[in-house]
Design goal:
- Helix content is 37%, strand content 28%.
- The chain has 167 residues and is α+β, with helices and mostly antiparallel strands.
- The protein folds into two domains: 7-14 and 107-164, Alpha-Beta Plaits, CATH 3.30.70; 17-103, YajQ-like, domain 2 (Alpha-Beta Plaits, 2-Layer Sandwich), CATH 3.30.70.
- The strands form two sheets. Strands 2, 3, 4, 5 and 6 form a five-stranded antiparallel beta sheet that branches. The protein has a four-stranded antiparallel beta sheet with strand order 7-8-1-9, with helices on one face.
- One of its GO terms (cellular component) is cytosol.
- Nucleotide-binding protein.
- InterPro entries: UPF0234-like_C, UPF0234_N, YajQ-like_sf, YajQ/Smlt4090-like.
């Protein structure tokens, strides 16, 4: 490669939909058959169209147990549980509690601006630009780009980031 060519990568936040679906199915199955959930209202409903889950349980402690099952299954399928965006816990009918959980997709505008600002503050010879729900980083030195990735892995937002299209 010529010394003057630029290298780049995209910073994105996405979830592997297939593995997420498999993790949800496994979590639903475990909640359905586990002894400590027998005879309770504990459950997971998956609304694929709206990309959200409705978790139900008899009480908040049990709801947390359902969330733990879900996170465990996501981990086993290689899906980062930080992609979960938990909603507020609400009282539901028949003395149960309910929580709607969504999934993080794309880098939010405020976070994209913070990422670009952080990259500039590093003082490396790289450019970062916001493109819809991702940030593209370009630079001449691969080492500089790798330094950006390492920095964002430690100091990025609460949700998972992926680094792709490395050229």
């Amino acid at each position: 490669m010529a010394a003057s060519s630029n290298h780049s990568f995209d910073i994105v936040s996405e979830v592997n939909e297939v593995e997420l679906h498999n993790a949800i199915q496994q979590a639903r199955h475990e909640v359905a058959v586990r002894y400590d959930f027998k005879g309770t209202k504990a459950g997971i409903e998956y609304d694929k169209k709206n990309r959200c889950l409705t978790l139900t349980a008899d009480h908040q402690g049990q709801l947390e147990a359902v969330v733990m099952v879900l996170k465990e299954k996501m981990l086993k399928r290689g899906v980062d549980h930080r992609a979960l965006k938990r909603g507020k816990i609400e009282e539901a009918s028949h003395d149960t509690v309910r929580e709607v959980v969504t999934f993080h997709r794309g880098i939010e505008a405020d976070d994209a601006r913070k990422i670009v600002k952080e990259i500039k503050a590093m003082g490396l010879k790289v450019q970062a630009q916001i493109m819809d729900e991702k940030v593209r980083v370009t630079g001449k030195k691969i080492d500089d780009l790798q330094a950006v990735i390492a920095h964002l892995r430690k100091n990025g937002p609460e949700y998972p980031l992926q680094f792709e299209n490395f050229t």
